[in-house]
Amino acid sequence: MDDLYLNKLMPEFSDQEIFADFSLSKLHLRIKRENRTRISGRVYLVKGDSDSLVRVPSFQNLLDGSCDGNQDVGIQFLESNFNPFEYSNNSQEIRTDVTGLEVKCGNRTLPVSGLSEPIDILTRRKNESLDGSVYVFKTSVSLGNLTVFEFLVGKEQSTLGFYIDFNSTRFPQDVSLFLCKDCVPTQDAFNWTATLPVSEDQIVSVPWINGTNLTSSPYQWLLHGEEVDITGYDVGNLTKFGIGVQFGSDLDLDEEEIIDFSLTVFESSCVYFDEEVHLWHSDGCEVGPLTNMTHIHCRCDHLTKFAGFVPPNPLNIAEALSANVLENPAGMVLVLAVFALYLFGILLTRKADRRDLLKAGVGILPGHTLNPRKECQYVITVYTGFRGNAGTTAEVTIVLGGLTNESIPFKLRDEKRVLFEKGSVDSFLLSTEEPLGELSHLRVWHNNKGYSPGWFLSQIVVTNRARNNTTYFLCNRWLSVEEDDGKVHRIIPRAVPEDLKKFRNLFLAKSARDMNDGHMWFSVVGRPARSPFTRVQRLSCCLTLLYSTMLTNIMFFGRGDDFEPPEPIRFAGVEINPPISLPQIMIGVQSAAIILPVNVLIAFLFRNSGPRGDKSTDKKAQKDGAGDGGKAKSSLPWWTAYIGWLLVWSASFVAAFFTVLYTLSFGRAKAEAWLVTFLTSFMTDLFLMQPFKLLIVAVIFALISKTPVEDDEPAAEPLESGEEFLHPVTPDSNKKQDTCLDSPLDESTLAEQRQKSAEKRKRRAAVLEVLVFGLFIAVVMATSYGERSPMAFYMTQNVGRQILETGDVGFFEIDDIPSFWTWITTGLMPALHVRSWYNGRVNPDAMLLTDMVTYPLGPVQLRQVRLGPGQHCAPPDQMLNVTSRCRVPYTLSVADTQNYSLHWVTVNTTANGTDNTVCSPSSSQTSRELHNCANNVSPWRYTYASLTDGIPYFGQHGSYISGGYIAWLGTTDESMTFLKRQSWLDENSRAVFIELILYNPHVNLFSVVSLVVEFSNLGGVYKSSEIVTVRLIQHDVILLLVLRGVLALFLLYFVFREGKSLLSRPLEYLSEFWSWVELLVITIGFSTLVIYFYTQNIIDEVAEQRRNGNSVFHLYKSSVSWFQISTYLQGFLICCATLKFIRLLRFNSHVYALSMTMKKSLKPLMSFMFSVAVILFAFILVMALTLGSKISDYKNISSTLQSLLLMMLGSFDFDALSSGHRILGPLVFFLYQVVMQFILLSIFMVILFDVYENEAHSENPHDIGFTSYLKETAAETVQRIKNTSFKIERKKPKMERRFSTNMIPKIYSGLRHLNSDSTI
Fold first, then answer.
1. In this model, does residue 1302 exceed pLDDT 50?
2. Is the peptide bond before 939 cis (omega within 30 degrees of 0)?
3. Do residues 1190 and 1207 make contact, with C-beta atoms less than 8 angstroms apart?
4. CA 20 to 30 Å from 477, out of 37, 331, 688, 837?
5. Exposure pattern of 117-130 as b/e (b: 16+ CB <10 Å)?
6. Is this model's pTM higher than 0.70 or not?
7. Residue 86 gets which letter from DSSP?
8. Are 789 and 1003 in contact (CB under 8 A)?
9. DSSP string, 133-168
10. Range name among 314-323, 485-494, 795-804, 906-915 with the lowest pLDDT average
């Protein structure tokens, strides 16, 4: 804010010392531009609001030549009536207002220290600041005698103050003070002494404002902390201090003068907030001589401190260990919650690791006859993508094509594994009858069977065992009738090196590998099945990483805010503001230096530790693998994994332990603030920033790198005891493969399946849209009705009965100004201020209604709207002999906005004047109740309407804005009597608003009562009342906040969906009626949320203002007004959403028939309604002309239209019609009923019935077979569960458990066995 004002706004003004003040209830701020050449002292405060000030000897000395001459300079003075650094460990010692001063040079804050002349700071003490640290001794003593008093101290290194107040005939009176620590002082035995009054050269005078000075008292003695040296031992062991007071000397003992005096002993300390360590310190500051019981005077030689290296937050381990965890459990709860989630995650990841054992390795096709010639053997690795629902339940078939031959179709099956799941890598060993030569292409398809046949194929890698060369076939497309081009058969050519280096392929491969194997958090879920780095190990690394991050985060919590923003960089005439400063970079580097080494080492040990198995078997396998052309990846010894586990547990414990200690040392407020900040930043980084970073890295890699992404060959992975890594060859594998060859589905079958799939998607989309929008309506209704109370109606009725129907004259019986005052005196005031209970006992609380449960919140407000002075009209010349007076109706053009004195006497002030005669209450209690000069409010001063909260009122004889002449009624009749005697209401008064706020704590309801009395220019009085009962303070505020959060998510989803539709087909979208309904729902939904949070801010401000004792009537009224607007918008939102929901149900035949009837009957009904309007207007004219001057319901066109419409509904007064005109009244009534009820209404129904009859038998194009769809979906779900259970049981390996071995040796062992036998 200071940069904005000093550098953007203030340079437009020529005044060198222009300033801007900002004042809140507990915060005052002044931003002031300064003249750098001014050498005189300066005093800074917010005039009219500040209780504190800062005086600097010279502004030029503060700059100290560190600011360029072409930059604006200024200050920012801040006074806070609360401690903004409450989180600091030693903030409990702060019991005064907090004052701050910053020196600005451009957009920089200059560090100020080592001043030759100190800065004077005067700060107001809080009322409780001297509790337990002040002693007041009052006594009488003879002149010359020594009187001793004892006291205790309460704070280390504090300054002791002694103030003498006395009466004596001898003036000035010498007073000797003797102070002794842990002893009784005498004239000869003491530790410190002083003689008062102090000499004139010791009296300190500080220049203040308007040429005045602040001067220290000559009868006050300050003993600074470094002199008295109060230690912790003195405070803890209650060391007594003795102070002796002697008026005069021993020579005055013979005189008999008695002196009455009081001695005040108080402690004071001056501290500043050190932003490096976030603690309050006292170095460089001392207590000044102006310190007294109400203010503390501090003299400091600096404003701020700065440093280059960023130290972490200090930690007192002994103090933290002695803290009570139950009083500050935030850190402990977070650490234990993370560990509990880790244990639960271990169960899930361990189960997933066991499932991965079945996926790893090379599978052999059941019944396949393996050709012993290695040039005919191929290892096929199929990569399924990571898209949503990328896996398939269909049977996949592949055909290899070479330059010389093409293989037969191979069904890729495995009885013991679940294949082709999302992100899976499945390997198969197969052979052809003859060599195919160099591979050129392959064909792959599936039979489109199962509950989820769609398949996203990433790539297929084929390795020939003889040549050991690898061929890539890139796909990255769907094989699905529901996605892409709807094909389930692909011919994939061989990928040449240029294909592997294309941006799309590099990006997809890099992002997939980094997301599912490289990223520690995401790889816990997407870890490749063949990776030796298990999910359990990855989750353990995440635990250590999280605890380490928590530790570094809390170590440097708040440290980045201690430093000023970096200097702007100027290059080629352009000024660039760096987004991060060097200290913030240092914090990042220091945090990384703490986190990275141990976590990188743990991941390295887990990823590269070798398996624990038989050494001879390992060597033999490695030898065979090398003979087959394979490459054995070097690994660390198997026992390094245990070192990794040791590091996991030790690093996690240390980080968690010190995190808890830091939270205990922070205090509860700061610890909870850190907890919220950490969780928010961690979730944001994990789910928003990290995926974005991975995508950016993948994009950069794809743009720069020309090397294809290859999977790392996994090291031999040790298994836990009792697990098998690869199923061995069994006799059951010798079954012959099916003799019938598979072939792709023909186009006619695919077309039929595509049509069925399209219909299924359409049904699914329709049902999903109905469910989503139905849930949206449920959330809106729960939000709307959740904040309302069924007791609001009863409270409204009760309040109306107590206020409107009491007194000698009821509210609706008011017919002139005297009767208005009678109702106020006998009805309103007694109803609001009950003097006694039902049993006759006096009620000590006068602010109570007659029901004894409802409380007025503040006095009653009367607001008058009146005509301006002068003659606004004149009677015709022919009638001047009758009267010359003329009164006009009220309009805004003739409204009065001037200021007056008593009896509406005009004063010489403008509407914005500040003449004291306008607000000059007398000393009587009555006038003080009516006037509020502090807020510039007087019954004769016009108060203008608020631009934001002023909602106009539309009455029967005018429209009134929220401004007017305001008077407040007290708890007695004197205020009303005073207003009546001073003729506050007269012939120019046009409306009086009686407004008050009531609260019933038993049902937690607020009632805003607004009563209006209009005095028309015809002499009539028109009354209206409105009582709005709402629940402003909710008990279930958390639930309502969650509901509104869910509502916001729904609205954001609708915005995304509608925005997508708008961009895809803008003209067609904007021409649809229901598109505008959707946009209306979104707009109203966001409007309700904005108004809700704005209303909550007003309610929070109400609570704050009430605590400060300020008037809050206008805030209550504003909050209720906005609450009503929110209610209207919610009702309109529910209406529009319900209409939209009915349209979504158009697949129902009855709903479709209804909607089509309304649509197709619109044109004939519009033509018919034009005829109805003509006939109705004819009746309106007849009734208005014949009965308008006699019956109020027909006084004008609008009221006549309303009466005739009500007459159709059966609401009419036949006697009034007859009395209006004995013949025409009944005649027109019967004629109107016959024409409207019997003729026109019948024609209207015939039109609707005719259209409905035609549409009821028409075919519904939106019919989706909802019932059949639900039955089919339920049957498919049941079948899916059965198939899944059966597949798991069927593919579960049935073998004897034995000692664990690794993957690679078993693969090579199986391959050697295959080479020695022609069939498996």
1. no
2. no
3. no
4. 688
5. ebbbbbbbbeeebb
6. no
7. T
8. yes
9. TEEEEEEEEETT-EEEEEEE--STTPEEEEEEEEE-
10. 906-915
Residues, the chain: 1320
Question: What's the pLDDT tens digit per position in 352-370?
Answer: 888 777 676 777 788 788 8
Please write the tens of the pLDDT for every residue from 221-263: 988 888 888 887 888 788 889 999 998 887 777 777 788 888 9
Distance CA 1027, CA 1080 (A): 30
996-1049 residue pLDDT tens: 889 888 888 888 898 999 998 877 888 999 888 888 887 777 788 888 889 999
Q: What is the rounded CA–CA span in Å between residue 800 and residue 802?
A: 6
Condensed to tens digits (0 to 9), the pLDDT of residues 1043-1082 reads 888 999 999 999 998 898 888 888 888 888 888 989 999 9
Annotate 720-775 with three-state secondary structure.
CCCCCCCCCCCHHHHCCCCCCCCCCCCHHHHHHHHHHHHHHHHHHHHHHHHHHHHH
CA distances from 564 to 110, 554, 938, 1154 (A): 9, 21, 48, 68
Which tokens in the block code for residue 37?
């050449």
Distance CA 56, CA 64 (A): 13
Burial code (b: 16+ CB inside 10 Å, e: under 16) for 1216-1237 equals bbeebbeeebeebbeebeebbe
190-209 burial by CB neighbour count: b if 16+ within 10 A, else e?
Answer: bbbeeebbbeeeeebebebe
The one-letter amino acid at 190: F
Among candidates 788, 1255, 73, 713, which has minimal Cα distance to 1247?
1255
How far is residue 586's CA from residue 594's CA, in Å, rounded to a whole number? 12
Distance CA 409, CA 419 (A): 18
Question: CA 312, CA 759: separation in Å to the nearest integer?
Answer: 63
Measure the CA–CA gap between 1009 and 858, rounded to whole angstroms. 13
Q: Which candidate, 1004, 974, 973, 971, places its Cα nearest to that of 845?
A: 971
**CA-to-CA distance for 1101 and 533, rounded, in angstroms?**
56
Cβ proximity of 247 and 190 under 8 Å: no
b/e per residue, 245-278, with b = 16+ CB within 10 A? bbbbeeebeeeeeebebebbbbbbbbbbbbbbbb
- CA-CA distance, 693 to 700, in Å (whole number)? 11
pLDDT category at 1213 given cuts 50, 70, 90 is confident
Residue 20 sits at φ, ψ, to 5 deg, of -135, 130
**Cβ contacts of residue 248 below 8 Å, gap of 6+?**
143, 144, 170, 173, 174, 255
Measured CA to CA, the distance from residue 892 to residue 915 in angstroms comes to 26
Pairing outcome for strands 362-364 and 425-431: parallel
Longest dimension (CA), the chain: 138
Cα 852 to chain centroid, rounded: 40
Instruction: Return the closest-CA partner of residue 618 out of 1305, 1173, 150, 111.
Output: 1305
DSSP letter for each residue of 514-572: IIIIISTTTHHHH--TT-SS-HHHHHHHHHHHHHHHHHHHHHTTTGGGGSPPPPPEEET
- Residue by residue, DSSP assigns 358-409 as HHSSEEE-TT----S-GGGEEEEEEEE--STT----SPEEEEEEESS-BPPP
| Element housing 1104 (H / E) | helix 1073-1107
Tell me 125's DSSP state. B
φ/ψ (deg, to 5) at 178: -125, 125
Angstrom CA distances, 1033 to 767, 1027, 1161, stand at: 39, 18, 48
Which token pair is 694? 């991975």
**CA atoms of 1203 and 1220, how far apart (whole Å):** 14
The 10s digit of each residue's pLDDT in 1191-1204 is: 888 888 888 998 89
State how far the Cα of 800 lies from the Cα of 794, in Å rounded to an integer.
10
3-state SS of 216-235? CCCCEEEECHHHHCCCHHHH
User: C-alpha angle with apex 402: 401 to 407, nearest 5 degrees?
Assistant: 45
